[in-house]
Amino acid sequence: MIVVENLVKTFGGFRAVDGASLEIGAGTITGLIGPNGAGKTTLFNVIAGVHQPTAGRVTMGGEDITGLPPHQLFHKGLLRTFQIAHEFSSMTVRENLMMVPGAQSGETLWNAWFGRKGIAEEERALGAKADEVLAFLTIDHLTYEKAGNLSGGQKKLLELGRTMMVDAKIVFLDEVGAGVNRTLLNTIGDAIIRLNKERGYTFVVIEHDMDFIERLCDPVICMAEGKVLAEGTLAEIKANEQVIEAYLGTGLKNKDKLAKT
């Protein structure tokens, strides 16, 4: 689905992504792991159009999407979430979801004046869609809560819900477990698995919680120093000497530490 070829992103003289090549298969939940500073988030940002690549190529379904801005990728079904959730804090959870789809009728002055019936019908449909999403994520009890009052984990669920409002094809999740308690993380994991199996979503997940990665992800890709080191099952990754060196710098004698990371 996504093919990344020799991708490079430099900041001044620093190569944050250094010739990375990888493939994301349609219908997979792919884990992206690596030590801090490995280039994982920068890779996400380049694929998702937040940063322009210095060199290299990205294709989606055979179409060259290299350097396209986020709003164009959004309309192609490629979405990306962030380590820190972004929400409209003064709006309700339901309203946050209803804001997601683009080109809504009420956005034009003409329709605001003369197309009120159409706007009302569209809002009813969006509201129904939002209610469906909230029920799917089991957070319908938060429907009318101000988004700014949500916990960190609830905000991550809200971000996942946003992707459902536009029926995304591929979603890049950046540290979805950061600052989230275990109960909510399990709820998020359940939702990701259901979206993958029931609705055909493709996911790429950056995460440091190896239990979460093991539960959800196959394959797993490991990065270090801007490069792709290895790809395979999590068990294969944990047994890879290059991966162990990247995490620990001391080789196989400390491989048990990686298993507990």
Automatic annotation (TrEMBL):
Taxonomic classification: Bacteria, Pseudomonadati, Pseudomonadota, Alphaproteobacteria, Rhodobacterales
GO molecular function, one term: ATP hydrolysis activity
Protein name: Branched-chain amino acid transport system ATP-binding protein
Keyword Cytoplasm: no
Pfam families: ABC_tran (PF00005), BCA_ABC_TP_C (PF12399)
PROSITE patterns (alphabetical): ABC_TRANSPORTER_1, ABC_TRANSPORTER_2
SMART domains noted in UniProt: AAA
Record key words, sorted: ATP-binding, Nucleotide-binding, Transport
Keyword DNA damage among UniProt keywords: no
InterPro entries: AAA+_ATPase, ABC_AA/LPS_Transport, ABC_transporter-like_ATP-bd, ABC_transporter-like_CS, BCA_ABC_TP_C, P-loop_NTPase
ABC transporter domain location: 2-250
One term under GO cellular component: plasma membrane
Domain of life of the native organism: Bacteria
